[in-house]
């Protein structure tokens, strides 16, 4: 009798029953309830003390190692006057706490999530260059803690900070500024707690980061451990290198200043007798340039050194003031020329009157007396003619020939100013831009 077929059928029935029973058992498992049981198990009273720091690597008594990485969400402002900048970021810390290990139910529980940071031990990290800061609580507090089965803890929070940023404004507005974000331990020394940058990508920056007057060129991560009389403390820092956008200052400052300087040169082409027009033009451009300079300095801190913008506005103000002084010199020269012309006219009138008196004296002599006029020295006249033949007229260079077209000194001053002022201003521009742009390239290296 063949019993193989009934036995196979019975085995198949048993396997089907067991699989169905397992499915029914799995369907009845409440994983949320399991999470509660696990949290009560690892964080229950008498089981976990948040005041005690975790052990070191591999359960040793060494310092706890905390990996840090940040995600820069936005940079709202960089203030030159107060020398600070505001940033919003997502801050993350990760460390291993073997006391928080749990059973992941065959890989079904990837991690446990907490929203109360005081339930587990937290590193005492603070931002050393912070001026102001706040957490985000809308709609719920933007913070979470994830506990993984192997005891790894991930802490993430969104914060907004206003941080100090000491600036060197010697090259303003052709400058670059480096603003730091410093994070350090407040109470735990390096014997108990060490901060490390997360390997791979410690700092991320949002792709569409937009700043009104700056461009974020690059960022660098580094360590900045500090030693005090209470011990050595672990410290991390990230340096953000910002380059100032020059197009704004070119349109708002440099081009208007150039236009004011050029407008002040218009007085060189006005008639020297147009005193009200030339005075009004010079005074107006001078006051406008002074107002422009004061407006620029109002948006900057009162530093003790000279900035690049101070050199520019100072030289432009000097050119405008020089154009006004040039008119004063022209006016003085014009009055001097007029006085000289009056003196020459008076002298000519006196000579004419003297010659008329001499002629009248000759007419009054005896008309009947006649005498022959003969040259006294004939030979001397011949020698003079020979000297005149051999003498060559003095050579005149192009500058003297050109200046001879303007007989008065006042006119000559105006003509020379028309050439000298633009030429000197062009040389200043060449020296200014080559100097500061070259210094900027050196700082980049």
Key words describing this protein structure:
single chain, 445 residues, alpha+beta, 4-stranded antiparallel β-sheet, 8 helices
Question: What do you see in this structure?
Answer:
This protein has helices spanning 4-27, 31-43, 246-264, 275-298, 308-364, 378-390, 398-403, 409-444, and strands at 64-79, 84-96, 112-114, 125-127, 130-135, 143-147, 152-164, 176-185, 193-197, 203-205, 214-223, 226-228, 231-233, 235-244. The chain has 445 residues and is an alpha+beta fold. The strands form three sheets. Strands 1, 2, 3, 5, 6, 7, 9 and 10 form an eight-stranded mixed sheet that branches. Strands 4-8-14-11 form a four-stranded antiparallel sheet, with no helix packed on it. Strands 12-13 form a two-stranded antiparallel ribbon. A hairpin with a 4-residue loop joins β1 (64-79) and β2 (84-96). α3 (246-264) runs antiparallel to α4 (275-298). It is rod-shaped.
């Amino acid at each position: 009798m063949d019993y193989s077929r009934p036995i196979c059928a019975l085995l198949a029935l048993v396997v089907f029953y067991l699989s169905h029973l397992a499915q029914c058992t799995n369907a009845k498992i409440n994983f949320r309830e399991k999470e509660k049981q696990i949290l009560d198990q690892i964080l229950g009273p008498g089981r976990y003390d948040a005041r005690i720091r975790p052990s070191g690597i591999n359960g040793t008594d060494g310092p706890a190692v905390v990996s840090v990485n940040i995600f820069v969400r936005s940079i709202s402002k960089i203030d030159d006057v107060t020398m600070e900048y505001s940033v919003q970021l997502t801050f993350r810390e990760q460390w291993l706490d073997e006391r928080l290990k749990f059973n992941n139910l065959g890989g079904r529980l990837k991690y446990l999530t907490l929203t109360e940071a005081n339930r587990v031990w937290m590193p005492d990290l603070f931002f050393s260059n912070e001026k102001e800061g706040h957490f985000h609580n809308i709609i719920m507090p933007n913070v979470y803690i994830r506990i993984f089965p192997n005891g790894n803890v991930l802490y993430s929070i969104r914060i907004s900070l206003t941080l100090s940023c000491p600036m060197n404004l010697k090259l303003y507005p052709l400058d670059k500024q480096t603003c730091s974000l410093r994070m350090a331990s407040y109470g735990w020394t390096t014997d108990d707690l060490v901060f490390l940058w997360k390997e791979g990508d410690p700092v991320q920056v949002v792709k569409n980061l937009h700043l009104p007057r700056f461009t974020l060129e690059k960022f660098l991560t580094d360590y900045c451990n500090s030693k005090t009389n209470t011990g050595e403390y672990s410290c991390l820092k990230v340096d953000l290198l910002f380059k100032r956008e020059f197009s704004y200052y070119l349109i708002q400052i440099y081009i208007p200043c150039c236009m004011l300087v050029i407008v002040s040169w218009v007085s060189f082409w006005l008639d020297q007798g147009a005193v009200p027009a030339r005075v009004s033009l010079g005074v107006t451009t001078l006051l406008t340039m002074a107002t422009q300079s004061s407006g620029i300095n109002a948006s900057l801190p009162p530093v003790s050194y000279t900035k690049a913008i101070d050199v520019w506005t100072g030289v432009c103000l000097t050119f405008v003031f020089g154009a006004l002084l040039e008119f004063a010199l022209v006016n003085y020269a014009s009055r001097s020329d007029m006085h000289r012309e009056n003196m020459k006219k008076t002298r000519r009138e006196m000579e004419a009157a003297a010659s008329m008196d001499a002629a009248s004296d000759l007419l009054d002599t005896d008309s009947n007396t006649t005498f022959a006029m003969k040259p006294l020295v004939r030979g001397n006249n011949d020698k003079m003619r020979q000297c005149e033949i051999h003498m060559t007229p003095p050579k005149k260079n192009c500058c003297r020939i050109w200046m001879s077209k303007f007989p008065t000194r006042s006119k000559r001053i105006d003509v020379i100013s028309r050439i000298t002022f633009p030429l000197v201003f062009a040389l200043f521009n060449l020296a200014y831009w080559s100097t500061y742009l070259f210094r900027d390239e050196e700082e980049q290296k």
